[in-house]
Amino acid sequence: MRGFQYNQCLRLLSVIALLAVLLLTLSACAGSSAPLPSPTASAIASPETGANQRGPDTEQTANMKDEHSLSWQTYEVVSPTTLRIPFVGNGDSRCYGFRATVEETPKEVRIRLLSGTLPKAPRACTLPALHSTLLVQLKAPLSDRVVYAVE
Predict the structure, then answer these.
(1) pLDDT higher than 80, residue 111
(2) Is the overall model pTM greater than 0.90, yes or no?
């Protein structure tokens, strides 16, 4: 009898855990944009720290095919009207490009990163995931506006 109750309890806990994971997954996918915290002073490294030793920023590309949104979660203020957005993208620059769309209001900045296939890309392309950065120009200084990542 105890074995039967124990098995029922385990089965019930498994179902509850599965439902919790499913609910968390769906709630994470439901939002199309999330506000990002303002970067802290430590996010903007001074040249003396050596934290700026990264590759060049990725050039924005127009006229891509099969565009899709990329996820990103933080930004660095380069100047009052320039943000640097780190992201993970496909690294084969012969095949793939990146660009950002920006919507600005007096209270917020909404940025969507896009990746797509270049018009003259070769047929055989590799998909290495590489850390990249993209510079995004704003029409007005960021000031105290909230930055949103749009996916």
Answers:
(1) yes
(2) no
